[in-house]
Structure formats: C-alpha cells, structure tokens
Amino acid sequence: MRLTWLRTPLRIIAWMVYAALSLVIVYGVYRLIQFKGATYFFQALLDGLRLGFVYALIALGYTMVYGIVRLINFAHCDVFMVGAFSSYYAITSYGWGIVPAIILAMVVCIVLNIAIERMAYKPLRNAPRITALISAIGVSFFLEYFTALRFVFGADFLTYKRPFDVVVWNVLGLSISNITVIIVAVTLALLALLLYIINRTKVGKAMRATSQDATAARLMGIDIDRIITLTFGIGAALAGAAGVLYAIAFPQIWTFMGIMPGLKAFIAAVLGGIGNIAGAVLGSLLMGEIEVLTVSFVPFGSRIRDLVAFLVLIIVFLVKPTGILGEPQVEKV
Amino acid sequence: MSMPQARCLPTWLTTLVVAVAVFVIVTMLYARGIMTSYVYNVLQLACIAAISALGLNLVYGFNGQFSLGQIGFYAIGAYSSALITKEFTTYWSGAQFSTLSWLQAGMIGVVVILWAANRLHLRQLFSRLNKALAELRRMERTILVAVVVVLITLVLVAVGAALTWVLQLGISALLTALIPALPAAAAQSVLFFLALVTSAAFAALVAYLVGKPLLRLHSDYFGIATLGFAIVIYTILQNSDMVIATMKGARGMVEIPMWTSWPWVFGILFVLVVVMRNLVYSSHGRAIISVREDEVAARQMGINVPNAKVIAFAIGGFYAGMAGGLYAHLIGFLHPSTFDFVRGFDPLIIIVFGGLGSMTGTLVASGLFSLIIEGLRVVLPQGFEDWRFVIYPILLLAIILLRQKGLLGTHEWGWLQPPHVLLREVAVTGGNPQPPEVIP
Amino acid sequence: MSKKRFMVLSILMVVAMLLSACGPAVAPTAGDATKAPGGEAPAGDGTVYKVGLIVPLSGDAKTFGISTMNGVMMAVEEAKAEGFNIDILVEDGKCDAQEGTNAATKLITQDKVHYIIGAVCSSESLPVSVLAEQNKVVQITPPSTNPAVTVNEDGTVKQYVFRACFLDPFQGVVMAALAKELGATKAAILYDVSNDYVKGLAEYAKESFEQGGGEVAVFEAYTKNDTDFSAILSKVADANVDVIFLPDYYNKVNLIAQQIKEKGITATMIGGDGWDSSDLELDLMEGGYFSNHYSPQDPRDVVQNFVKNYQTKYNSMPDSFATLGYDAAKILIQAIQEAGTDDTTLVAQKMAAIQYSGVTGDISFDEQHNPIKKAAIIKISGGQTEFFKFVAP
Fold first, then answer.
1. pLDDT tens, A120-137?
2. Interface of C with A in 278-317 (CB under 8 A)
3. C-alpha to C-alpha distance for A43 and A293, rounded to whole angstroms
4. pTM score of the predicted model
C-alpha cells in the first residue's frame, strides 16, 4: 500500500499533534515555575534534596543486604529507630556532641544487627527465602513492640534535642540550614567510604564476588558467613547514622518511627535498582523530589504524596522491570 | 508423598464429616451459651483470615508469585460490598440497588472492552499501520500510531460505557422487581450473597487488570509492586470521602449491616476450599503449579505462562475480596487503618506459617494465628496487656526457626490430598497381586 | 509431618480453642496493685460493679492509651478509697476496629462487664459503641470526638453511649473566634487527613473562620506518618498568614512547630485540646493559644487536687487524655451511685440527666449525649502556660 498522496497531510497532522503536546508541556513547566515564583520552586527542589539524602542513607543499608543475601530486611527500619534512640540518650543524658553520637549509634546498631543476623537469619540460610523474610518481619514487630514497653524506650513521642543550634542562611532567597549541610555532608562522606570499601578493599572484592555468585565465591575460598555478617554490620552502621540524621532533621522519635521512612527508603532503593549502590542514591533523591514536588505543585498533593510516589514506582517497573539502574534479569535455563 | 491408603472410608467422606462436625459443634456450643460470642467472633475472624490466606496461597504457594497486595483486594471487597448493602438498608427510595447494578454493569462493560480489544488484535493492527506509514519519518509515525491508539481506546471506552449504562438500567430494574417481592429474610440473604459475590468479582477484576501488566515482573519486584498497589489503595481509602461521600474516608464507614454469621462464614469457607482443591488438582491447577516450579520449562511444555499467572492472581483477588466482604459485615465498621500495609503481612505470615502450598496448612495456621493473638489476650494477666505483641513475634520466630518449611510443609490432609492417580501396574509382583483399590 | 502428629496437633488446637471458650477458668483476675484485691469485703449492698477499660496499649497510639488509663485508674482508686466497690478490667484496643471489637466482645460476653470506659481512637470507639448498644452496656468514651459514636446515622441517639469531650464543631468555632479576636484575617490550617479528630476540627475551624470574614489561604493535609512538612510550610510562608491552626496532638504539633521556626514563619499558632500535654515544647509555641477542657491554674479544689495527685502518682502533668479519662470515670461512677443498682438502663438514664462538677468543668449531657461544658483558652507565654479565658458554648 502506497500512501504517497497522504504523506503531506499525515505529516502535517503529526507535527500539529507534536506542537500541541510540546506546548502543553512547556506551559506546564512554565506554570510550575511561575506558580509561586522561582524561589518557591527552587526551595522545593532543595527541600526534596534534603529528604532524598536522608532516604539515601537508609536505602544504602537495604540495598547492601539485599545485594548479598537477597533478603528484604524489614527489621532494618527498626535498627534505624534504635540508632536514633541511643543517640538521643547520649545527647540528652550525657551531653555528647553530634560526631560521638553518630558513632555511638553506629556501634549500637552494628551490635544489634549482627545479633539479629546470628539469631534470626543465619539458621535460615538454607531454608526457602521467604522464611527469612517472615523472620525479618517477626524481628521487626518484636523490636517495635518490645521497645515500646515502659522499661525500654517507652511509648512516648520524644522531642529530639539537637546537639547544636540551627543556623539558617539565606542564599539568593533560598533558606538553607546547617542541618541540610550536615545531612548532605555526612551522607556523602559515608557514601564515599562505602564505595571505597566495596571497590578498593579486599573485603569489598569478596563482597562483590559473594553478591554475584555465592557458591562460586565459597569455592574461591571466601568465607561467606563472615562476609554476610560484615554486610549486616555495614548496613547497620548506615542505619545508625541515618537514624541520627533523620532525628536531627525531623526532631521527634518514637518506637514506630522507622516504618514509614524505612518503607520509603526501601522503595527508593528498588526504584533505583536494588543491590546497586548508585541506584539506591539515585532512587532516594528521586523519591525525595517526587514527594516534595507533589506536595508543592499538585492539587491535593499533600494528601496523595504516597500515592504519587508508588504510582511512579509502578510506572518505572513497567518500563524497566528491575528499576532504573538495575541489571536486567537474565532468564536461566 | 503420601502412601496409598487402605482405608474403609473414602477421604472425601471423612473430610466432610469433620467439617460438618466442626460446624455443628460450634453452632451447638454457641446456641447453648457455652461458647461466648467472643470466641464465636474470633472463630469467624479466623475463618475470614483463612479465606484471604487461601487466596494468597494460590498466588504465592502454588503459583510462586510473591504478592504483598492481598490486603488491597481485601479492602476493595470490604468497601464495595459495604457500599452495596448499606445502600440497601439505609435508603428505601427505589434507588437502593444503584451501587450493585452499577458495579455489575461496569464489570461486564470492562470485560467486554477487554474481550473486544483482544478480538481486534490491536498489536497486529498497529504493526501493520506502522508498516503502511513507512514513508514517514519515525517520529511522525509514532505520533500517528499513538493518535490511533488513543482514538481506538476512546471508542472502546465509549462503547463500554454505553453498554454499562444500558445494562445498569436493566439490572437495576430486574433487582427492583425481584428482591422486594421476596420475604424479608430471603431478600436480605440474596442481597448479601449478591453483594459478596459482586464485590469479590470486582476485586478479582481489579486483580486481573493490575496483574496483567505487573506479572511480567520477577519475584521480589512483583512483591514490591503489589505492596505499592496496597499503599495506593490505602491512600485512596483515606481520601475516599472526596469521591464517594458514604465511604467517609478517615471518619470511618459506620452502620454497615452486621449480617455475617457463623453459617455464612463457614459455608463460604467450605465452598471456597472445595473450589480451591478442585482447581489445584485440575489441569489448570497443574499449569499454575508448573509455573512455580520452572517458568521456562512450563513455557516449553506449551503452558501459557502469563495466562496461568494472571488467572491465579485474579482468583487470589476473588478470595481476598470475599474475605473482605465478610469482614465488613462482621464488624459493621470500616476504617482505612484496618487496611494498612503492615496488616498486609498477616496473610503472608499465615501461609508461610502453615506451609507454602498446603491448603490444610493454611487452614490450621489461620486458626493458630487467631488463637495466638486472642489467646494471649485471655492468658496474659492484667497489667501485661502491652506484652501481647511482644510475645506474638517471639512465638512467630520460634515456630519459623524450628519448622522452617512451615507447620505442615506441603502436606495435605484428608480429601485435600492430591487425588491418587492409579498407574497401570507394569511389574508383576510375586504372590497374588492385590486388585487395585480405587480411591476417588 | 506424619498424619498422626497432625491429628494430635489439630486436636490440641481445638481443645485449646474450647478452653479459651470456657472463660472464667483462665480469665484474668485483678491482682495488680492498682486494682482491687480479689477478696476485699464488699461494701454497701455487696454488688461489685464491673467496668471494662479499652485503650490502645500497643501500637503507635499507646502513649495516649496509657495517659487515658492513668486518669481512669486515679478516679477508680479514689472511688475505692471512698468504699465504692468497683472492679476494673483493662483491654488493649490497639487503635483498630478489629482489635477494639474483640476487646469489647471479650469484656462484655466473657468478663460480663456492665460498663465500658473507652475507647480512645474513634476507629475503636465506633464498633465498641455498636456492641455496647446491642448488649445494653453503658459506654463512655473519654476522647472520641466523632459524632457517630453517640448518634446513629438516622439521627437517633445511642441510648447507652456517652462521651466526655467536646465535639469538633464547638472547638472549631472556639478556635476560629479566638483567631478573630487576635485580629487575624489570613489563616493557614494544617491537618492530618488520616485522623478524624484533627480533620473534623480543621474543617469546622475553616468554616467558622471564613464565615467571620477571614481568609483561609492555606488548607493543607498531611498523613499520620509524615515527618517532613517543608513543602507545606513553604506554601504557608509564601501566603504570609497571621495565624496557623494546628489542630493535631502535641507530638505532631511539636514536629511542625519546629519546622515552622526553621522556615522563619512568625505567625501565631492556635491549637485544640490535643496540645494539652507536658510534652508540648512550649518555647516553640511561644505566643500561641490552645483551647482546652480545663486550666491547671483553675483555683477550684477539684482541679488543684487532681493536678497535685496526678503529679505525685505519675510524676508528670496530666494531659488532656488523662483529664478526660479521669472525668469520664468519675461521671460513670457518679451515675452508678445515683442509680444505686447494677441496672445499666437506669444508669444510662441517670447519666443522661447527670449534673457533674469535675475537673473539666460543670458537665451535663445534651440530647445527643455530648457534654455541655466550657472551654478554657490557654496562652503560652514566657515558656509557661497561663489561663487566658473561658468560652461558654
């Protein structure tokens, strides 16, 4: 079928549709920026960035563990909560500064997470994968409800005392606080350290090997158990630091505080491609921006921020089934 | 797996006897006042949990698709059935069947659209269109095809909507003519049944529509996507008052007629177990199981893998919707917080607890699950109420660690066992060969 | 697992189920120090009045449940000290419809209580109220503001169900009137869409403020688990409002106020009775106001005694939950004493006609079983709460 005579009209129609669509998009972006002024737009971007960096630290822990043992560690968000609480006690009762508080939280979380790994996950290493997941859910419930008992942390909502004064700078009409600076700095520092460990050290090499093929790694003389324990330790350290930073950014802690940020961060890790460090950071930043921009610009956005975030996740999945940076799954025959 | 049994009674009979006995004993105990309505209530909740878990067991246990979205379908079933029956009891204005008829007509409309889209072979149409437009540049081609796609979709939707509207009038007229003619008790039962089935079918349709694109994802990714679905539903429920005023959003939907009773719950559970058992051991069931075992091999054997997956998922949704409907009419009140994603772990815990891919295990585990949570309420002394959810995860962990494959593994009991298929005896055994016992 | 072991297991399960059915054998008996010792000699006519208390004792509303329980327990102990024979059983409702229903059916059918105090969240109280009405059990809920708790949808009143707190419309009007009194013309309202108390209050405050000629420039929702309010607050900062209504509980308010300060917003904050807690960060709310059920500075004896006793007993200031719990229990006890019998219908009638003078003021019930009482406006200045004025309905 030759459609030569139709060529020009069809072409015109096509270009008209293109033009209309692009006009709509350009107008949309223009309205977005002009809605409340450019400052408002960039302030929203900045707020989203801050939220994204907080998510990133949690997401890194999820992604590390998933990359090695293929376990969705639902207890991670509760380890995060314990980190926030331990730094709270260090700061309010003993007047510690921020750096020792973060280090304490990391140490506490490492000990806790390794204990959890030993007791709840290690015996299940050869069981079906789902068993370990249920075990993780069990640990998560236990930590949440146990710490809410009167003689542990209690059920109150505690106000987190920041160990420093908040300073707000005004740069080009945007308000940037030192909290944002600290969050970004700590996250980037830990990320750099993590990348160093994984890419430049022997342990990191072993980790990468284990993540690619645990059986082959074992045959190469890698002590898998040690690597797994180490991974849980690193994940916990990140969770501890994230707990402190989260509590500094949003200064209130209670024993169920981990559920929502944990879920969001986990989803962010999946969005970026779980098991992938860069993916976790990318996904988290994206998640933070999506949330804040939704609230800022979408009508009724504050009511449906979760809905939008998860719809984006589902759409990304439909386009790229393993997340943005995830490696495509190879079907093994 | 199981030894061929030389029993006097066929397994279906023993199973039936046990089921009837359980039903009669509970009914008697309650009627005599020996069993308090607390225990009676908890038993019904356990059966409801079992229905929902059975659905998930088909999706995850038999078909191997890790889903966390069961709670979303549960919510859909609960709210839609509640809307139907509440309308019936609240307004005797002649329009009391509008939700029911709209829902039924709408479902038929969607199914017709799907069927038509399937019949039209749209994909082929588009590729041919694409080829026909080979003269144009690629960008231009894409946009033109997209315009055609949008147009066809619009036409289909319009046809579906028109069909829905006509059907709705018809169904509404039929129901208005028939139901008030029945005696009150019968009308109520018929309506309750219709509400349950319609809302469960609605949940199944949603499951089909959601599952169709999502089931291309693998293992954990599918799980996360369904978790996302559950959270989307939860958020919609919280804001539901903006769309349907009766759903009341976070105010909670009140005064849903409390029609659920032990015979309803047990009867529906019984029927659904029978259906599930027969499905699992049918050729469709074997197709579903083969997908769990090895997708590639299943495809090589000529099994339509995407189809098997989406059918299992839709049936799972049906079960969850049914459970949700029963739940709504048991408690008489719905609040979005009941459908929080954390609660969505419950059916998953139950099926792993009982043994993945074991129907008996699911039934036992849902009983045990309710027994643990409510039993702790009874057993714990005053002043230790907040220990309930501390002890529950400890028990959960202990059981999971001790029995890694769940309570029953993949074992089944009684009639739920795989039917014993007799193979032709090839080897001649010494002595006088026993005539093969036929166990139906 | 072999067949036999499975059979044993299932039999065990059934037996266990039945055992739990025969309630009294394993039903908890009050043995805690805070509760009546079992063998106490009955006073008066010897009737022991069994009261059930349903509050969330697990989950994230636990702290509210504990406060309510503390208040109720104080009232119960005082009544016991006066020789009133009351037995109280606590159940966990977990702020959830299903758990609340189970707790209520257990208390009503297994423990045979005739009175229920609770529950805290409206999502618990609503199903409980239906059961209370069915079983003719008198229920009084301390803090549930949802009108549907005491009133059926067709407008009839649930005969046996009462509440101790004021409704959202009244408090919303009080808050809006206060804002107008402060000279505000432009307001922002932030509310939790998943909490019906907060949502109701926000909607009524908005309606009332707009009726009075004010402008609600920002009316934004958030959800229970949100902790990042930066985007919403950017809108608030942009709108340049005079007052911000924060009709949420103290915990969320603390978090939002912190971020309000960081955004450099100086508008006056106005809240509802959810603010009343010793955990409220007063220095963040400097210059703010909230409506409350009472003022701790109220010189009346009953208030001063309550505050003093609560402080010595629980080592903290009572919050609104504790206060309402205390008054709810007191109202119930007074109604029982006035009725003089364990007949719940009579008690419900007495309660409907009660004239009670307690911590939260002089209370009587209107036809819909909502208390008619004054609201106290509390001002926060100099890091202290101080009484501002009373507002009568």
1. 999 998 888 889 999 999
2. 279, 281
3. 10
4. 0.90
